[in-house]
Task: inverse folding
């Protein structure tokens, strides 16, 4: 590796790390993800510092063309991370579904949905009672939570 | 004491057909409670259901029929119903068919599937693509469950209390839930039977899915079904 490419990779690594740290600081990303990405960054920095390490590892694995080792490692790591994300997504979706189902059942129990917009619950409940014919189930006309 | 029965009607934008369906239910089975699960409709589905005097559980966004059903199952379990019926909002199902299906439940069945294909005067005739896909599904289910089911995607079903409790948390939520549900019930050792019923053409609205999307869903389902096959070992370990 020429010094130039080392410098470029190092710069890219630091920029990525900086971006990720910023996301965490703004609470747009969980800190545990910072950990994963920081660990990967350290690996990349390690490779920049000791490029011959790749040759050594390739020798252990029986890979004749050392850059292939890097591609292999990157593919495996990204693969694992995307599996992890698929699992997380599935879990999140399932939880969202359960929340939606429970919300529908709670609305039914209360016989009225929560008011649209920032109106106070008590206020809307009184309005709804005023508007409803006696004995009718109280439920305001359509509102869609989208 | 008579068994308490809940009729669960998943409804997505069914304001046109729902009133007639609710009217036939009120006339045919006045003793049964009716729960309409409004699956994130953008029309007046909830309003027409309330106007008809039935209970409505309104989902905040569209979950698909599986999610709507699961909501209904939870309600049935929470409120101590002995059995539940899944009934279509678009007038495909006939109230007079309910009695024999419930009779099957009384005779020990856990899941009664109303089937369109068994010999019957007004036999249901699907299109070529849908019909072909149904044959593939039927074959897959036959291989996996070791049983012949003539109609794997029927939305006209009756559920026993143990079945409801099982499905309240495990009911599949993706498209064509009914096929997965059929296998789940078989694998978990529930008694699943089929009963021939009359079904009508849809009275209003359009079929929920187009052909191309249908192909994707069938592919997905085949994969899921075979992935599920590992559950078969649990057969006999029935959760009651």
Result:
């Amino acid at each position: 590796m020429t010094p130039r490419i080392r410098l470029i990779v190092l710069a890219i690594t630091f920029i990525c790390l900086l971006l990720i740290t910023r996301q965490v600081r703004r609470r747009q990303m969980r800190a545990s993800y910072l950990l994963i990405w920081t660990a990967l960054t350290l690996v990349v920095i390690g490779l920049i510092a000791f490029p011959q390490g790749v040759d050594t590892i390739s020798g252990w694995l029986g890979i004749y063309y050392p850059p292939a080792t890097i591609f292999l490692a990157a593919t495996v790591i990204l693969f694992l991370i995307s599996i992890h994300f698929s699992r997380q997504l599935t879990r999140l979706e399932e939880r969202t579904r359960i929340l939606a189902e429970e919300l529908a059942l709670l609305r039914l129990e209360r016989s009225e949905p929560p008011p649209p917009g920032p109106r106070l619950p008590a206020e809307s409940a009184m309005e709804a009672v005023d508007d409803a014919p006696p004995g009718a189930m109280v439920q305001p006309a359509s509102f869609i939570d989208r | 004491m008579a068994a308490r029965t809940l009729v669960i009607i998943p409804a997505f934008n069914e304001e046109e057909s729902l009133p007639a369906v609710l009217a036939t239910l009120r006339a045919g089975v006045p003793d049964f409670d009716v729960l309409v699960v409004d699956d994130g409709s953008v029309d007046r589905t909830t309003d027409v259901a309330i106007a008809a005097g039935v209970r409505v559980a309104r989902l905040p966004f569209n979950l698909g029929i599986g999610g709507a059903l699961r909501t209904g199952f939870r309600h049935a379990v929470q409120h101590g119903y002995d059995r539940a019926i899944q009934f279509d909002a678009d007038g495909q199902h006939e109230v007079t068919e309910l009695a024999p299906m419930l009779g099957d439940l009384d005779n020990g069945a856990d899941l009664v599937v109303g089937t369109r294909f068994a010999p019957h005067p007004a036999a249901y005739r699907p299109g070529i693509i849908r019909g072909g896909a149904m044959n593939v599904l039927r074959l897959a289910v036959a291989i996996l469950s070791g049983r012949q089911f003539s109609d794997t995607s029927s939305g006209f079903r009756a559920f026993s209390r143990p079945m409801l409790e099982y499905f309240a948390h495990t009911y599949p939520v993706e498209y064509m839930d009914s096929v997965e549900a059929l296998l789940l019930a078989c694998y978990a050792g529930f008694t699943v039977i089929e009963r021939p019923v009359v079904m009508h053409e849809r009275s209003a609205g359009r079929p929920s899915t187009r052909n191309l999307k249908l192909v994707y869903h069938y592919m997905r389902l085949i994969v899921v079904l075979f992935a599920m096959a590992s559950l078969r070992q649990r057969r006999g370990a029935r959760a009651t």
Remarks:
- The interface with chain B takes residues 94, 97, 100-105, 107-108, 113, 137, 139, 141-142, 144-146 of chain A (CB under 8 Å).
- Confidence is low (pLDDT under 50) at residues 112-146 of chain A.
